[in-house]
Amino acid sequence: MANIHDIAKMAGVSVTTVSRVLNNHKYVSDDKRATVLKIMDEMNYTPNKNAIDLIRGETRMIGLIIPYNNNQCFDQILNGVLHKAVEKDYTVTVLPSQYNKAKELECLSKLKNKLLDGIIIASRANDWEAILPYTAYGSVVTCEFTPHPSIGCSYIDRYASYVDAFQLLKDKGHVDVTFTTARGLESMSTRQLIAAYKEVFGTFQSDVYVTGCSCLDDGLIAAKTFLNRPNRPTAIFANGDEVAGGMYLYAQSMGLKVPDDLAIIGQENQPIGVGLGISSVNHQLFQVGEQACDLIIHKSNQKIKIPYQMIQRTST
């Protein structure tokens, strides 16, 4: 099988010229490029990608650490990353972590082994102190704010969005308000939700929220928990539009009217929310993913804040 030296000899050019052709380098004359490509075609030459990456100093591959897929939040981030990567001719490797700290660090070690140019962290299990050493081997960008100068971030102000959602409900006269989360107190989002609730309502009891919600069925179960209490809430802030959709359907099954008997706010502006007229906090996670990918491509440590949107529909 022909190698790069054979191609150079047959084309009457240097190995450097062949390397430049393989890397689409602009400083190669048209006639030499045509000759090299013709020889490659005749010899059925397949370049060694690892060798090209070594010459070029980059793989044009980006890793995306996500806890799991089939989740509306992480799917939107993934779609944003993929959209930007295809536009810029990069490849994306999805690295599911399941919030396992060891697995997460194993993914980051791919930077040290030069298998990826950079890694985007959609959501993390490790502390920043465990992640920081890997920035010495490649770009690391996160989808939450971090003050560390060596890590770029594309993020939204979730706390402000939660305050706005609770304040909207309070302004409409609701005081018995509950909410749902995906994870427990180990999650920054959950802690921010609790803090936002305290800020708006001035009080907090542990039974005002249910955790472990991520889909329509979870919303049905959470609504059953909330709405069968002696003093049922008059409003619920769900951690996703699918969860909110389950709540909407359960409320209807009880003969409750939305929003007269129960107001509902979801998150992420999903089709089910549009169809049922559910108000939603859109964190624009597609744009978060796009911007995170752009930061990786440009090896940037910038902190880019993506604005959220409050979308009011008939459910409030």
From TrEMBL:
InterPro entries assigned to the protein according to its UniProt record, in alphabetical order: HTH_LacI, Lambda_DNA-bd_dom_sf, Peripla_BP/Lac1_sug-bd_dom, Peripla_BP_I
Coiled coil: none
Name recorded for this polypeptide: LacI family transcriptional regulator
Source organism per UniProt: Paenibacillus selenitireducens
PANTHER family according to UniProt: CATABOLITE CONTROL PROTEIN B (PTHR30146:SF105), LACI-RELATED TRANSCRIPTIONAL REPRESSOR (PTHR30146)
CDD domains reported for this sequence: HTH_LacI, PBP1_CcpB-like
UniProt-listed Pfam families: LacI (PF00356), Peripla_BP_1 (PF00532)
One GO MF term: DNA-binding transcription factor activity
Domain HTH lacI-type residues, every copy: 2-56
SMART domains the UniProt entry points to: HTH_LACI
Keywords: DNA-binding, Transcription, Transcription regulation
Entries under SUPFAM superfamilies matching the protein: lambda repressor-like DNA-binding domains, Periplasmic binding protein-like I
